[in-house]
Fold these 2 entries.
Entry 1:
Amino acid sequence: MKRQYPDWQGPRNRPLEAVRRHLTRVFARAGVFAAGVGLLAAGMASPCCAQSKSPADSIAEYRKMLADDNPAELFEAKGEELWKKARGPKNISLEACDLGKGPGQVAGAFVSLPRYFADTGRVQDLESRLLTCMQVLQGFDAEQIAATPFGKAEQVSLASLVAWIAAQSRGLHFDVPQGRTEERRMYELGKQIFFYRAGPYDFACATCHGDDGKRIRLQELPRLTANPGDGVGFAAWPAYRLSTGELWGMQRRINDCFRQQRFPYPGFGSEVTIALGVYMGVNARGAESIAPALKR
Amino acid sequence: MHNRMICSAAFLLTVGLMTSCANQATKGDADIRSNLDGAMRTSFRTEGIARVERLQQDATNAACSKAQGAPLAEEVSRSIEADNLKSVRMPSDGRFLGNWKEGERLAQNGRGMTWTDSSDQPNANGGNCYNCHQLDKAEVSYGTLGPSLYGYGRLHGVTDPTDPGARAVLENTWTKLYNAKALNACSGMPRFGQAGILDESQLKDLMALLLDPSSPVNQ
Amino acid sequence: MADPMKIRAQAADGKTTVRVLMAHEMETGQRKDPAGKIIPAWYIQQVSAQLNGAIVLTAQWGPSISKNPFLQFTVRGGKAGDRVAISWIDNSGERRSDEATVS
Amino acid sequence: MYSRRAALSRSLQLAALMVAAGILPRLARADSGPYDKAAFEAKSIPDLLKALGAAAPVESKDVTLTAPDIAENGAVVPIGAATTLPDVKRMLVLVEKNPAVLSAIFEISEAVEPVVATRVKMGQTSNVFAVAMLADGRMLFAQKEVKVTLGGCGG
């Protein structure tokens, strides 16, 4: 949903002189006369340094202004509470949940997911693994939660849990395992999906994320066929999305990529989404996690 | 610092080993292929206008996907391009250029064809141009997946689009917009005409944005 | 009930910088849901900040303050161990108060 | 305007007294003053000034507005308003092209510096203003144009 603000074709491309005239009119109507307008005009005549900066510099500056106070922290706090609180039909906490490092071991778990779990017999990412724990330990209906739209009900709980769990691996380096046949099969599957072109636009993941230094509009696109660097790409999700004011896990990130790829709808925790997680995660080996990050 | 370098070297080595392991695990293309089809079938569902049938690949997409970014064999490329060229319909009235202002509006519009869009008809779709290309220099928010198109008409020597000498550029540009794969088998650009994303009049407006001497693209 | 705020208060050079993140939708009342129905306005209207129990700053906000609002202000004086309390009330009458210790 | 401000300042003092006397809970209620509905509904800067009963604003180098040149996302635009002037009663943040121009009013007491920051939504590229309202009724401002860029593919 877009905000219903009027579609205004204003000073974005309007010369400064026109902006100045417009402002002068506004303030004149408000009762500002000679002196005020004079000062105003003097101020406007020397528009600040902004124009000499490149858009990329300006965007970097914008991001820096927001970096220190990431609303993802609100989700982290909620996630920690949800992990420790007795909930669900069985009224039990998630503290015995095994994320791959043993029951209740949260630190470092995030940077080695997705991985194979013997109890479910499949490779799981953080979100699908949490669903298993919520079902087995707490008695929630995992299928029902998977079918719940993002941003609603228990999907919000999942997003908060993911934020807190990821934060417990902040600064650690990705090391997604490939020791088991099934993990390697998922990597190969993920790679094929990454390059799979289809839909009315013929897009694949690789269309946007196959090369270095590319952008959509002003958004840099990390190359995901190799380690794109610390805190970039796979190592930057989950993240707080400024556009929706919500916490997005990797499942939602992939879901919205497929939407923009003009593909049909990928199921939450489906094999395709997890395989892509394995492909990106293994490629990102060694990258430092900054998740939960702050994203447009 | 020194430790870190040793670490990195170890990482590289590990990744190298992993890659070769992964390759060994890949017994035959057929196995993986059936696996891929199964995974695609069970993972996606129809949502709104985005139907599961969209996952079907034509020969072009199948070949380019399989190549995984590597160049296709020369003769395969030529054959794909020839097939795609057959789909291209030149403008029915012989006029190539519409209104560049409409073209600019379309170029700015990145919407269309997603499961959150209610219609898949051309009038509901944008051209998505600025997502990947620079056009009007005044627009600072442009993508770089495709080449800059600023100065497109001027740089192609088009000063009068009605001049017969401009015909080749017009036809070539029309073909690129209508079906980019007719000129480059694995182009990343959608086939706007062939796939029914944009209609003839919308394509003409984009043509005008690129080639009209009064378009901001050519200033 | 609304989720807790995140309050950071740091004293340095004779002043205390307070940074607050609040969990709130800040719905403008101008957006429509997928069915085309207007989503009603729901936003924090007033905020107050206290240092050791005394009000030091109040604010009135409109719906154009971003979702999950951020507020930063600087208190003259203040020292480690002082208590900073932030309260808000939204247009539906819901309230939330949280406290932090100056570090 | 003056009477409203006086009333507000009285109510602040009263609230402080009540807190001290233990009448209000330790975490006081946020609504310790009135909410200026008319000001927040103003659609233009002239309407806003009328609603506030404020004097004509004058641009001043003593007021600082911190804002990005380009906002990557109009939903969250960081804005800082500050001044070095004494006797500041209020700091305002305005976005000229928003459906309602006023985003925030900060009541500045003696206990805080006239230095505040928040984040606002911007529907489109617009001029943003930081306004300092002084005890003597003067309105001084700083302004800057913030470009709001369009998002990526798929809208």
Entry 2:
Amino acid sequence: MSQYSAFGLLRGAFNGQKHWQPAWRDPQPKSHYDIIIIGGGGHGLATAYYLAKVHGLKNIAVLEKGWIGGGNTGRNTTIVRSNYRLKPLHDLFEFGLKMWEHLSDDLNYNVMFSPRGAMFLGHSDADMTKLAERGDAMRCDGIDADLMTRAEVAKFEPLLDMSRGARFPIDGALIQRRGGTARHDAVAWGYARAADMLGVDIIQKCEVTGFVRDGAAVVGVETTRGRIGAGRVGICVAGNSGHVAGLAGLQLPVESQTLQAMVTEGVKPMINSVIMSQSLHCYISQSDKGGVVFGGDPDNWPSYAQRGNSKVMEGAVAQGLALVPALSRLRMVRTWSGVTDMSFDGAPIIGETPVKNLYLNGGWCYGGFKATPASGWTYAHTLATGTPHALNAPFALDRFERGATIDETGSGPMPNSR
Amino acid sequence: MTKLSISMLPAAPLHAFEIWGNPAAVGKRFKAACGFALPALGRSDGTAALRLIRFEPTVWLVEGDASPLASILSDDGAVTAIGGGIVRIRLSGNNWRTVLMEGGVFDAESPTFAAGCSAATIIDHVNVRLHVVDETTCDAYVPLSFSQGLLHFWTQAADALAG
Amino acid sequence: MMQFTCPHCGPRAQAEFVYERTVDSVVALDAPPEDAMRTLFTRNNPRGVDDEIWRHTYGCRAWMVITRHRVTNEISAIRAVGPEALT
Amino acid sequence: MITFSFDGKSYTAREGDTLAAALLRNGVGLVGRSFKYHRPRGIMTAGVEEPNALVTIGEGGRTEPNTRATDVFVYEGLVAKSQNRWPNLSFDVGSVLGLAAPALSAGFYYKTFFGSAKKWMFYEYFIRKAAGLGNAPTQTDPDRFSQRAAFCDLLVIGAGPAGMQAAVEAAEVGKRVILVEQDNILAPSLLRDPQAQDAAWIKATAERIRAAGGRILTRTTASGYWEHDLVTLTQRIAEPGQIPPHNVAQCLWHVRAGHVILATGSIERPMAFAHNDRPGVMLSQAVRTYVQRFGVVPGKRAVIATNNDDAYKTAQALKDAGAHIVAIIDARPAPAGAGSGFRVYNNAVPLSTKGARHCLKSVTALVDDKTVSWDADLMAVSGGFTPVVHLHMQAGGTLDWNEHAQAFVPAASRQNVTTIGGAADPQAIFKMVPVSSPKKSFIDFQNDVTLADVDLAWAEGYRSVEHLKRYTTLGMATDQGKLSNMAALGRLAEKQGVAIPEAGLTTFRPPYTPVTMGLIAGAGAKDAGAHIRRLALYDLHAAKNPIWQPLGYWFRPRAYPTGGETLAQAALREAKAVRNNVGMTDVSTLAKFEISGPDAAAFLEIICATTVSKLAVGRGRYTFMLREDGVVFDDGTVWRLDENRYLLTSSTGGADRMATHISYVRQVLCPQMRVSAVNVQEHYAGIAVAGPKAKSVLATLIGEEPPRHMSTVPASIAGVPVIILAASYSGERAFEIYVDASQAEAVWAACETQVNEVGGALYGLEAMEFLRIEKGHLVVGGEVDGRMTPHDLALDKMLNKAGGYVGASGLARPALAETRRRQLVGLEAIEGDIPEGAMLVTQEGASPVGHVSAAAFRIIEGGSVALGQLTDGFARHGEELIATSPTRGQKARVRVVVPHFYDAAGERYRD
């Protein structure tokens, strides 16, 4: 298979770009794999890649019910950061952020990771203290975080409303300069291509419809393309975790909710970084094509419909315009929605399940994209060795009933705000 | 079309009249004492001295002299003063219905929402309770803390619509 | 934005309602502790029909159970919850 | 005549012209540059599907970039500018990118620019500058955007003859009807193609609809079809860039309809051939629209390319307007087009165009396997018709394949929607396959996606239609793929060797056409929809010009500086007044609930984790509430006002959450209880009077002996009935006075007079924070952070031993009893001031073992003290730690102590 390079493109300029091969094969499923990953999103494909690359496993399949990267991997706001207050969270996401910094080279696929800064704005002294607390927690654990003054924020993002009379006046920000955005589709495609090169079978249009049990253990899956045996099975279908785990008779501490995002028509560069807020729930960045990407809160009620809600969208846009009034005359051109696993402490679940040979990676709420490399790495470790990696050990499924939740916002056991 | 007039009514004692049991018996006692029946949900009834507007399944908003109500309820309910937290805004004029559609989600333009009707809804993010006094008058019961903002919002909407 | 037929107020915009939790997550006050925590923390979460507790927070403030399909948003039933229904 | 300008040059237009019509009228053919290769582009369509003619309209805060020239009606003084070009439209340096096109194939950026992330950012800088289209305004929008609700029995979208007929019929049988048209006139297609109905019919029908109570909205686009037949309409009140009446530029309608009729028609398709993007190549119906509706003839020598009958009407219209029809290239075999009177070439498909100076010069076609060329300055193309099924699909409807029209048409829907007219039954066409070189055959004009890009994506394995779109960026431009979708599906089907319906289908999501962000935000753009809540006593505070502090949606006085004091100076003065004398503050925002009925105490013992039923009438106590998982989520006080009547207070920040929780427990968990729980947060304004002289101040105010600590009495101040609660948050003897908010001003004034009389002061939240930290009282959102149990906060001794409260089960979870939990501690500075929010570490460089949740100074003696959370903190009293804040470059050495720095024994509460 051809290595990707500028030289390859130049060569293509003289042959009509005819020398490129499919980025991944389209194999028939085998009768048995050592490990089956259910879900061909970024996390599942990354898991397969690290299983092959780091753990040397050869007989791996990724089963995707539709087309790879078609779920939440392709339906997010592409933000990458590790600026969490709680240690288990910032340790996991920081591990991932370090991987992002070399991911394009590692995969030989440009995932366009652009560390142009992820900023949380503060709108009061109380906000600034909370931001300092978060930054201090990160800095003490070796993660970059800096407070910015009002003047620094104004210089960094000139279109923010810096007026004192603003409803949410800007007093400063906490910036993680190593945070930024990446190209979401490229992450799925890059991992798929790299995993395929290492022999992983990526099987699209193959929906899992049930689990094959041998007593207490799972020994395979039923799919729309037949029964496939497996040594271990890893669920990796965030958004649909409840549904797939339900096929194995499991109930999860997860509720599926819709999270929508939107993008404006392309304009020349106006937003330099990723703008978030300590008091508001919207996040704004500008894509390389010039569209201003907007996200907000999830819909706050259960849904598997990949459709947005007008009122929720209006709320998110109102928040964005309160911060960046210059967006007023831009036009929203496209909306999309993902179905997210809202877990009951806002943190993911990666690890064993009560069913032998069955593992779970889910519960990512609306923070999964940025974790893709770390999620894949730790889940691969868990699946290959049968025990969690130190980084994902705190994210065990049984933590809720045990009382060891990792509740970043302290909002408790409801996936909505109460 | 007459221009809509939007104004705050003076503060008045308002009470929540809540029933938790024996509704039929309470209803009977109420009618005997007050001379009119407890209104159904979405309706009001009463006199200038005492008016009850029902916005909730078990709670009536009482406007006027609430002193006889506690004894009517006996052990089947309670009366609680709530008037300090509510501002009454009166919209009078022909197009109050049009103004209420601004920032709203409730069908105030429906012909069935007529005099003596009540409804609780959300307008411009504020929970608002509406009572149709007559075809050209609608009273809104608004939380005190949001009342200035809503008054401004309606005044602005009325001006734009009047044009 | 959906529309729910409130058992007390009739058809109203979803914006007047707040989703609170699923019926299967309601922990009775007298539930044994082990059951209580399992009930609180796990959900059926079906990709289909489920019973949900919503409140007409910006309307009549009443609580209700809405039976809804999570993909099509088809509402098959709404019933009132609370003290003895008053008419 | 209307005057407008384009790129600084002044032109005139006729009333009713779109900008596109006006530009064509003035002979302006070059209007824009494409996104990727900066290719010169003209006007292609006459509608919202326009991919090429994008301009920036308006000035200052009203600037609207990327406006389709076909979708703006010219008004006096309109200012339009071309975009995505430098230094000017006809000489654009960016067009050198076109030379590199062979290397810049679809997805090229995935295959290069490797190296570190910083290196990518270097390349990205240039890519970002080249991308985008227009410039966003930098000034604030001076206009407002309205959002309105509407309800109807029937909503008709599309006011063509079919839509108008449906609307009038329904209106006249008494239905509430709304009729919507995105153009600025009704039945615009009748101006393009005169039919049986005429202008008089339109006028009469519109009048009948209005007379029957129907509402007609023109210049209004149905942009979204949501759940349960909710449709959002975007109404242009003013044109882009135009100063609107009453400052309202647009209106967003949320229409809930009983039934929706879609009479949305269809969009003409282009054809794929080399250099099909050249200015001068237009869609056939668009050409006809310019000729018949606007009286503009876009060319003198026209070639028509078609696969259907409709384009012959264009030929006739052009001929009638004086243009010469050079040739009609008809893909259909003879005798199609015979007898039309034109020079028709059958079995003919376009191959390429040539041009000069951004104008069309000639067209080449393949006719029966032979190449034929004609000189022409206009090419009108009709590749068939794509029904506008967007709204039907947004509503969750499915589609059927119509083989005759080679198009998808609406099928079943789970919502109450019907499609009529051309959108349901498109014209038949002849199926044709592109034969020309794929490299310059554009299918997505704005994003410069060619057939070759589709082929490359296919070869590289991006074979699902979604992969194809994402890899090539097809359909991602501002025209949302209205012209490109079917061409791409056709090519994909060809590659797969299947019929189009088997190749796949993309989903349409809102919006149908791009929607202005300000309109989506509506009134919320100004304050994020988060209205400030105004205190009952706002005017009295404002008169003193305090420093305000946000708390949730409230703004409360933080301090009342006098004589040039800083915040810190004012707060310290105010706090000292409380410690030494007396202070008063506004506590109105606290959550308050009145709980009445025979079961009130039992109900409160479910809500509160402490006992309540033992309270005597007239007494109160501190209490706290747990979430169902056992974590503390709020605290406050509970007072027995009467035999069966209690007042419960809790935190301001948690007020709404607590109100919902109380209602949930009441209505869902305990429906049988005889209790009424009423939220009286806003009913009562609250005034706290605290300090050694508070008792004497109160005595003067109420004319009797004030209640002892944690007792309550009804009283009267300034003739107004009040409730006095003897409670303290500051650590001093203190009272909270609750009064009907509508009468609070008089009570506040009376209190202030008395406080001033004895030399006391007003105090704000900052002083309150100093006082409570020194005393060691908790605050929700600080020490009570949603992660701490009663044990962690040393509240466990107060738990109701009988259980039965919400959260009792949660507390039994095993991990909550394990060691290594964070626990509440006090911190005393040994060296330096303790930074609030700082991390607690055992030594430099170590991972934190806790943090500082609140920091202050001892009010009288000075010295930095703080409250914090520390792993196994209860067992670490006396230990030395470092409180470090790397983000602020601050640190302090601290000693772990008991979290009470002031009057731990509570002696100051005693009289």
